[in-house]
Amino acid sequence: MAERGFHTFSEINSQPDVWAATLAEFQSLVPALDRFWQRHSIQRIICTGCGSTYYLSLVAASLFQALRHIPTQARPASEVVLFPEVVQLGDASTLLVTISRSGETTETLDAVEVFREQAGGPVLAITCYGDSSLARRADFVLTASAAQEESVAQTRSFSSMTVLAEALAGHLAGLDAGTILRPLPAIARRLMDEYRSLAQTLGETMAIQRFFFLGTGFLYGMACEAMLKMKEMSLSYSEAFHTLEFRHGPMSMVDEHSLVIGLLSEGAQRHEMAVLEQMQRAGAHVLALSEKETGCADAARWHEVVLHSELPTWARTVAYLPVLHLLAYHRAMANQQNPDRPARLDAVVTLKSLLIS
Ligand code: F1P
C-alpha cells in the first residue's frame, strides 16, 4: 500500500506535464470541435457538475460569458434535475456543458437526461474518461486523459479540466488559445518550486485553525475549489466567499487563528486588497495570490504568492491553484489525515437515479 498522501502529492506535482498533455489533446480535437460548433446555433449555455466539477462549472460559465459573450449559467447537476423550471433549460439553442472527472456521477448523468427531454439541445462533456457513461451520452467530448487520478480528491483532474475550459472559451472567442495557454505548464512548475516551502510552513502552522478563501469574477469558482480541497483532504474548517461579501457577516469569524487567502484579480485588486488589509489589521494571517507584488509583503502575518504569469487574466485563472493544492496537502499531513483517501468520501457518488420514483 502506498504511504499516506503519496498519490495526492505526486498528482499535484505532475500538473505541469499533465497540463501540457491536456493542451496537446485539446489541439487534436479542434477540427471536430469546430464542426460541432457550426452544426448548432448556440444562444445560451448551462454548465453543470457536482462538487469540484460544479465549482469548475462556475469558472467555465464566467469564461464563456466574458470571452464569447454567450449568456451562461452554472448550476449543480441536482438543481438541473430537481428544479428544471428554476434553471430554465431553454430549447435546442441551449448547450449543456457537463463536467465530471469520472463521467459516472449519477446526478450529472440524470441532468443530461432531463436536459435532453426538456430542452433537446446538444451536450458537451468535459471529463478525464473518454469511455465513460457521460462521454457516451454527449454529442461532443473534451478529454483530459492524462489527468486521471488514484486519489479521491481532485487536483490535477480539476486543474486540467480547467485548462480545457479555458482553451474552449478562448477558442470559441476566436483567440489562438493553444498559443496563449502554452506557457501555463512552465508557470505552474515555477510557482510550485518557488512557493513549496511557504505552502508547507503555512500548512503546518497549527496556530491557524480556520481557512477563508476569497475570490471575484473568474476566481470565485477557484476560491470555492481551493476551499473544498482544504476541507476534503485535511478535514479543516474552510469556507469560500466572494471577496467583498466577506465584510457582510463572515468576517465576524476572523481572529488570529484565521488564514484569509485572497485570490486577487487585476481589475478589482484595489477593492480586494482593502478587504485583506482590514482582515490583517483584525489579527488574521493573510495569503495574497496576485499577478504582481502587492506592496504589503513586509506587513505582519502577510504572505504572498506572485504569479508573474504575463498571461491575460482569463488565461491565468488556473495558475492560482497548484500552490493552494500544496497548502491543503501539507495541512492534511499535519492533521494526520490521508489526503489520498479522505474520511467518509468516495471518488464518485453513484446513487439510484433521482428520476426513478
Ligand atoms: C464529483 C465529486 C467530487 C468530490 C467527491 C465526489 O465527481 O463530487 O468533486 O470530490 O469525491 O465526487 P465527478 O463527477 O467530477 O467525477
Overview of the structural elements:
By secondary structure, the chain is α/β, with parallel strands linked by helices. The chain has 13 helices and ten strands. The chain has two domains: 6-181, 3-Layer(aba) Sandwich (Rossmann fold), CATH 3.40.50; 184-334, Glucose-6-phosphate isomerase like protein, domain 1 (Rossmann fold), CATH 3.40.50.10490. It has a five-stranded parallel sheet with strand order 2-1-3-4-5, with helices on both faces. Bound molecules: 1-O-phosphono-beta-D-fructopyranose (F1P). 1-O-phosphono-beta-D-fructopyranose (F1P) binds at residues 49-53, 100-102, 105, 108, 152-154, 232, 345, 347-349. Residues 49-53, 100-102, 105, 108, 152-154, 232, 345, 347-349 line the site of 1-O-phosphono-beta-D-fructopyranose.
Short note summarizing the structure:
This protein has 13 helices and ten strands. The chain is α/β, with parallel strands linked by helices.
